User: Fold this.
Amino acid sequence: MGKYYIETFGCQMNEFDSARIAYLLDNEGYTPADKIEEADVIAINTCAVREKAKNKLYGHVGNLKSLKKSNPDLVICIGGCSAQNLKEIILKDFPFVDIIFGTHNISQLPELISRRKEINQSICEIKNNGFDYVLDNFKNTLPFKACLPISIGCDNFCSYCIVPYVRGKEISITPEEVIETAGKLVSGGVVEIILLGQNVNSYGKDLDKPVSFAELLNDIARIDGLKRIRFMTSHPKDLSLELIDVISENKNIMNHIHLPLQAGSDKILKSMNRKYTKEGYLGIIENIRAKIKECFITTDIIVGFPGEERGDFNDTLDVVKKVRFNRAFTFIFSKREGTAACSLKDNISIKDKKEWFKELLIIQNQISLEENQKIAGRNFEVLVEGEGNKGLMAGRLENNTVVNFEGDKSMAGKFVNIIVTEARSFYLEGKVLK
Ligand code: SAH
Ligand code: SF4
Ligand code: F3S
Assistant:
């Protein structure tokens, strides 16, 4: 059938979708190409969350034109969130693209490729909603670790965010299907599973027989042989005390919560439609710290939201200093066409936004470093993932921090004990204990 090459931008949900594409193309008899130049089918899985993501897509797709020239039979497929969002523009600007497929049309991709080979015309297939696939039909890249969606889409409509528009309404996958798939993965050798959803904490409310995320997690934790369970993303407005209890009571649920703050000011949180306050957020952190031992807390923060003033930004800094996040992913607000925040008056100069952003980064990096320094000299169990930087091996602590150490490739997928020898802001260095 030929060879395929998949490129993925964006979040872990897109990574999972790419694993589904790989599975479907393998089933058709295609084989993976080592280089994009060798491919007969190229699938680009795009992200739309910030303007930069779109610009990246444009540069990238533009570059594919020369490949098409040297191989006229090449089938170029553009999928993912930007395809969902910008279909007309992509077709107009890049007439050499063969197929545009939406985030709900992945199952159709093999059929679209066959159809494209028969007709001399670009194809565009975009559905707005739906969950129409078998959960375990994906090609897992690491034999010992897998991502697994528990819900797709999002109903929260945070005012800055494009995701609800490109991923459709929230649909929970039944607990039976999630647990069965997780069980199969574990029987096949997987020891770590990351449960995915835009807001895992609202899981299950839409099911015929409603189930909470805490209940699902508790059931998954019972799977024999499943050593590590992670999940993301948690929305603060739906994080329950029951969930905190389940995490603290199960050894195989890891002590890491990614809890996007977005902003510290009540005024900005309201305008973002986040549905919690600064005090409410700090209260959740207190509950987490009281119950979950050494819980690693990471976050996302947006700087320069329309209407944000210096005093509002100070509230963000205040939360950052009070919580002492282990890590924060920080973004300058990016206007997304079609979202509610798009019509808000943006009063802050880009110069100010960049300065605040830098200020936040310096403070947070120092906190990340200090928190990591606290664990230098201690021993931890590490799941080895593979080769890291500078010829070292890399693995993760239970709390998700990456540690680099001397070792060999045969260690991948195994648990080892490591002493932390050196702390950096975003990773650690260590030594394997014999
Ligand atoms: N569902 C997740 C992830 C959403 S996208 C959640 O609710 O946290 C990941 C992050 O991108 C968000 O948490 C937010 O911090 C950032 N983001 C989303 N839209 C953005 C925008 N328009 N401008 C800047 N950052 C944005
Ligand atoms: Fe976007 Fe908010 Fe949904 Fe997260 S919860 S995907 S930030 S709308
Ligand atoms: Fe993910 Fe980007 Fe889409 S963050 S859901 S790939 S817009």
